[in-house]
Design brief:
two-stranded parallel ribbon; 8-stranded mixed β-sheet; alpha/beta; about 300 residues
Length: about 300
């Protein structure tokens, strides 16, 4: 496996140390008994502290709501895991906008689920009529082939929420025959290279894959000692643990806002085995992208 992968979260999402990363365990050497006892007294929880912690944990609970057509699950009975051959996860505004512009079509896809969560950086809404800059996480199913699922995740999933997200999303999807593709972006300043990042042709794509992924990737593999973080790393880690073929395409960019050039940097993926038969008409895709960015610009101007 090229590159190093760090899943930031709890449970399996934090078990991404199989690519050569060495994590040092905390040491208690040099702490005498008096200091340890004093620290224990200082950390002892009061009933009020426990109640506050309980309320915070409850508020930070990740809720995944699946809105499947009537008749697919009997009332009061948990729905069966969805059969899924391809699952495409776009994390971040630019990756989500790429799916909106080049893949999603209101006549071909239906919303089948949404994630509701709250943390210090975002609060998702209940609506499915979202703007590009909104915080949201929606799941779509291809009407002509219900085994194809897409996820647009423009909300920040905190470290302590990633394991919940993974368990509740992948717990509703059959793992047999599943292949996962992840799209994400990060600052080009995070890319580690012996060259100056100022000379790099930003934006550019790099790929990181699980051992089970056998298809040809659409860009160079991520080199060591680079790492990936947050939800993209957690999803790839989960797939590595469960031996699911998966590939992450990470776009390194010097623009942090919604940006045409960054969105179009994902276009090489349209020829991949996963996406090539899902692509909309190119001319229509270009119109969709312009409309998306115009809507976003108009929305931002309202608050200037």
């Amino acid at each position: 496996m090229r590159g190093a992968l760090r899943g930031r979260g709890r449970g399996r999402a934090a078990m991404a140390t199989f690519f050569g990363e060495v994590v040092a365990a905390p040491s208690r050497a040099g702490v005498d008994d008096d200091e340890e006892e004093a620290a224990g007294e200082a950390l002892e929880e009061t009933p009020e502290d426990r109640e506050i912690r309980r309320r915070v944990e409850e508020k930070r609970e990740v809720a995944v709501r699946w809105a499947l057509p009537a008749g697919e699950a009997a009332p009061g009975v948990a729905p069966e895991p969805l059969p899924c051959s391809r699952f495409v996860v776009a994390v971040g505004h630019n990756a989500a906008a790429f799916l909106s512009s080049f893949i999603l079509d209101s006549t071909c896809w239906e919303v089948v689920g949404a994630v509701k969560l709250w943390n210090e950086w975002c609060r998702t809404s209940n609506t499915t009529n979202v703007l590009p800059t909104d915080s949201f996480c929606l799941f779509y199913r291809l009407i002509s082939d219900p085994t194809v699922l897409l996820c647009q995740c423009s909300c920040y999933v905190a470290e302590d929420q990633q394991f919940q997200w993974l368990e509740k999303v992948f717990g509703h999807i059959r793992k047999e025959g599943l292949q996962v593709t992840i799209l994400s972006t990060c600052p080009v300043a995070d890319y580690k290279t012996q060259e100056s990042t100022l000379t790099l042709p930003s934006p550019f794509l790099k790929a990181l894959k699980t051992k089970e992924f056998k298809e040809q990737v659409c860009c160079p593999l991520l080199e060591q000692p680079n790492i990936v973080r947050d939800l993209p790393a957690a999803v790839l880690s989960y797939c590595q643990v469960w031996q699911i073929p998966a590939v992450l395409y990470q776009c390194y960019t010097d623009v942090i806002k919604l940006d045409t050039v960054t969105i179009e940097a994902f276009k090489p993926l349209l020829s991949s085995e996963t996406l090539k038969n899902l692509v909309k008409d190119v001319s229509e895709s270009t119109k969709s992208l312009k409309k998306l960015l115009t809507t976003n610009e108009n929305h931002n101007n309202i608050y200037i």
